[in-house]
Structure formats: structure tokens, C-alpha cells
Amino acid sequence: MAASITNADIKASGEIAVGPLFSRKEVAPSVSSIDKTSDDDAHADTPYQESKNGHGNSPKNTGTFETFGDPSFYTPIEQYEGKHRYDPSFEWAPREEKKLVRKLDARICSWVCLMFFALQLDRGNITQALSDNMLNDLKMDTNDYNTGQTIFYICFLFAELPSQLISKKLGPDRWIPIQMVSWSLVASLQAFISGRPSFFACRALLGILEGGFIPDNILYLSYFYTSIELPIRLSFFWVAYQSTSIISAFLAFGILHLRGRNGLAGWRWLFALEGLLTGCIGFISFVYLPPSPTQTKSWFRGKDGWFNEREELIMVNRIIRDDPSKGDMHNRQALSPRQLWYSLTDYDMWPIYLLGLSWLIPNYPMTQYLTLQLKAAGFGTFETNLLTIPAYVLFIVQLLWWTWVSEKTDQRFLTGLVSQIWALPLLIALETISPGIGAWTKWALSTLLVGGPYVHAIIVAITSRNAGSVRTRTVASALYNMTVQASSVIGSNIYRDKDKPLYRTGNKVLIGICCYNMALFLGAKFFYMAKNSTRRKKWDAMSSSEKQTYLETTNDRGNKRLDFRFAH
């Protein structure tokens, strides 16, 4: 299909174009021409044209590469699925890009959010089932529930990396629907659990089949969005997560009224019907998800696909200019054992993994026990489910707000610190309240804690951005999510049955973890600031010819290159 707008049209209109790869020249200068210039001149127009983030319009803290590059250094591999649309001299208007991003949001991000809704529906409806006396029906107690959740998260955790590696080999567009259909079957079959053994078995199978789903989707979104756009899209991702909690509360309100129908408890109907809904979304995903921006043609999506030639040119070139490493692998290329080991041992990513291991814990027990806490406070089954909704609404508002603040202020870890500052006084209040406190006061404290600042989207985006290569991004997304699931295992065992109803001991532990997290957020920021400062000094001390030689000969890859800058 012919391009509707040309570079000449943009220039004639007077609109500022989103430039070619080389911001001050339409064509990259050759190496020989650089050799003939002075160092001062070379700093102005060399192939490694210095910029704030690689495309010249964002603060320096945004990370990734500080330089533009000669096509010989940044050209995608021949197998890259968008190689035929790569053009370092291509220009487009900002209005075109904005329109295209809106189209991506409607076609790609919205469906990814729907799939995440399906995940959380089957993963989270256990809390609604608890409010319908599931534990009593199965002759189980709180400790059995904790054990079941621990089994789920351990299986979920250990499935993360294998799932991500399979996704990289098969392609997320194929693997994600397979996961969804598989776990929806198990989720529906939970309607037939009869006691502790079958409960544990179902939680284990769900963990194995759902593990890796989140990093699979993050990898998929990175094919379509730039590093600047990804945090906001990930916040939509987790809005879908918490919207599920609101919608499922209303669904549970209706479905649980089926208790006694055909001799089944309400919670059995809940598992069966919500699992069926997830399965339908999974089957549609098989034909809906395109493999990449340039591979949208199909019988379902249309013979012409979703995007015309110019839109594909814009998508490919804006992605590569934002992060050239995205052209290093194609979307169905597996990692070699050596690449896997290199990514696992990338110590520059470890501060993020440490954060994943603990930052969610202060809010986690109350989130998992919210319905039980409200029931213990004297609220009925249906009141309990409806009273959880304000916490989830507050959660969504804070998620969107703080993600926006982090990008607006260009401060990721300091924004993350807010989550712990918010939680600490609430935990202290829960620890010091008298046993006779009113039900509504307990509800208010619980709601504020569950609805606290959720900075997961910010940290996930930093993981993707600081990886510096598709290889490391694939592994790092899984490893970060593994640490998050490990934190869920820890969090599931902090509130113990013998400690209820006020959980004094558990709250003391949470207060200590909260203080530790504050130090960790600050430590991660200073670590990446120090790394950037050291590299910048080395890079700035090099002459233009030395920089050119470095780019031509270095064995450094991804976030190990001297011109790579970490976001913080």
C-alpha cells in the first residue's frame, strides 16, 4: 500500500518531523568524513550523535542509549521481523505517531488488558469463595488456605522462567492463548474439589499454567511500544487487574446467590462460570493476537491487516530508534544456554530483583485477607464483597496517578518509595488499635492499606528499560516476576491462624519489612546513579575517534555498553 504522507509532505507543511536516525543530518556521515574533522566538529555530527535518550525528547534519566548510531552498529539483524520496514532516513509527523499510538492502544493494549482481566478473575476469585464459607464446606482452616496459596505461588514462581523461554521460542501470540485455555479448564474444575488434597492439587496446577503469563505479556507489549510509553500501558495492565476485583465482586454477588441450585454451593458455581468465561477469551486470543507490528494480516484480522505500509514504517523505526537492541532478535527466536546464563548473571539487574522480593509484602496480607477481616468485623457475606470495592477503586486511582507522576518527574525509585511511606503509618495503626475498635474503623484502615500506591507498573517498566537487550529483557522480566511471586509466598505466611483476629505479631513483621524497603528503594536509586556517573565520565573523556573505535570494536552488549544509561 502506498504511503499516504511523504517526508517531503511533512517538510512542506512546516510541521516538525520526528527525525531520521541522525538528528542533525539526513544521512549518516561516513567514517572517513569523521576522520577529516576536528574533535569539536565531530562531537556535533558524528554517527554517535549525543542525545538525551536516543531520540532527543526526554530527560536523561529515561535510560537506554545516550547515543545515536551508524546503521552498521544499530541496523536490525536480517531475521528481525520488521527489517523490511527499517529506514534510518525515514521521517514522520508527531500527529501521525500520536494517532498510531491510539490505534495500538485500541487494538493491542486493550486486548492485553482483557487477557489480564481473565488471569486475575481465575487467580483472585478464591477470595470471594472464602466469603461463601468455602473453608467450612471443605473442613479446612486458615492455615490450610495459607498452604494452598503458598503451593500456588511456588508453582507460579518456578513456571515463570520456563514459560518465558517457551514464549520467546513460539512467540507470545501463540503461547499466551495456550496458557489461558489450559488454566481456564483447571479453574472450572475447582468446582469439584472435595477437600484439602484436591484443593492443593488445583492450586498447584493453576500456578504452573498461569506462571509466566505476566512477563509474556510485557515482552509482547515491548514489541509495539517505546520505553517512554510502556509504563503508562503497564499501568493500564494493572488497572485491568484491579478492575477485575471490582467486577468480580459484583459477579460474586450474583453468582453466590446460586448456592443450593442443583445442590451446589455458591463458590462452586463461581469457579465453574468464571473459568468458562476465561476459556472463551483464551480461544478468541488464538486468532486475535498479531505476532508483531508488521505481521497483522490474517483471515481474522483482514487480508490487508491492521496497518498500512507507512504505519508499519513508523512503528518499526520508532521502536528501533528508541531502543536499538529490539532489533537484535526476531520474535520467534529462542535463547541459547549461553545467552540465558549471561542474562541470569547480569548483576546490574539485581537491585530490581531485591525490590521485587519485598516491596509488595507490607500490603499483601491485608489484600489476601480483606474479605476474612471484614467477615470477622461483623459484616455479612454480600456486604463483605461490596465493601471491598472502595479499596480497589482507590488502588486504580493511585496506580494511574503515581505512574503518571513517575514519568512526569522522571523519578522511578523515589516514586516507588511513596508506597512504603503510605503503608507504614497504617500498619502502625493496625498494630496499636484496641481489640474493641469499631467495624467501620477497621474497614477504613484496611481499605487505605489495600488501596495504597501500587508502583508495580513503574518497576516492571524499569526492568524492561534497564535490560538493554531482548535477551536480558526476556529473562529479567521473568526473574523480576519470580521475585514478586516469592514475596507473595512470604506474605501468605505472615498472618497466622493463632495470631488472629488482630494479627499483632504479623503487623510487627510488616512494619520492619516496610522500613527495610525504604532503604532498598533509596539504595537502588543511588546504585544506578553511580553506574551512570562512572560511565558518563569515561564516555565524555573519549575523543570522537575513540568513541567511533569503541562502537566498532567493543564486545560490550546491551546494558554493559559505555553509552548505555540506566533509568532510576
UniProtKB/TrEMBL annotation:
<protein>
    <recommendedName>
        <fullName>Phthalate transporter</fullName>
    </recommendedName>
</protein>
<feature type="transmembrane region" description="Helical">
    <location>
        <begin position="443"/>
        <end position="463"/>
    </location>
</feature>
<dbReference type="InterPro" id="IPR036259">
    <property type="entry name" value="MFS_trans_sf"/>
</dbReference>
<feature type="region of interest" description="Disordered">
    <location>
        <begin position="26"/>
        <end position="62"/>
    </location>
</feature>
<feature type="transmembrane region" description="Helical">
    <location>
        <begin position="237"/>
        <end position="258"/>
    </location>
</feature>
<feature type="transmembrane region" description="Helical">
    <location>
        <begin position="384"/>
        <end position="401"/>
    </location>
</feature>
<keyword id="KW-1133">Transmembrane helix</keyword>
<feature type="compositionally biased region" description="Polar residues">
    <location>
        <begin position="48"/>
        <end position="62"/>
    </location>
</feature>
<feature type="transmembrane region" description="Helical">
    <location>
        <begin position="205"/>
        <end position="225"/>
    </location>
</feature>
<feature type="transmembrane region" description="Helical">
    <location>
        <begin position="413"/>
        <end position="431"/>
    </location>
</feature>
<keyword id="KW-0472">Membrane</keyword>
<dbReference type="Pfam" id="PF07690">
    <property type="entry name" value="MFS_1"/>
</dbReference>
<dbReference type="GO" id="GO:0022857">
    <property type="term" value="F:transmembrane transporter activity"/>
</dbReference>
<feature type="transmembrane region" description="Helical">
    <location>
        <begin position="350"/>
        <end position="372"/>
    </location>
</feature>
<keyword id="KW-0813">Transport</keyword>
<keyword id="KW-0812">Transmembrane</keyword>
<feature type="transmembrane region" description="Helical">
    <location>
        <begin position="509"/>
        <end position="528"/>
    </location>
</feature>
<dbReference type="GO" id="GO:0016020">
    <property type="term" value="C:membrane"/>
</dbReference>
<feature type="transmembrane region" description="Helical">
    <location>
        <begin position="270"/>
        <end position="289"/>
    </location>
</feature>
<dbReference type="InterPro" id="IPR011701">
    <property type="entry name" value="MFS"/>
</dbReference>
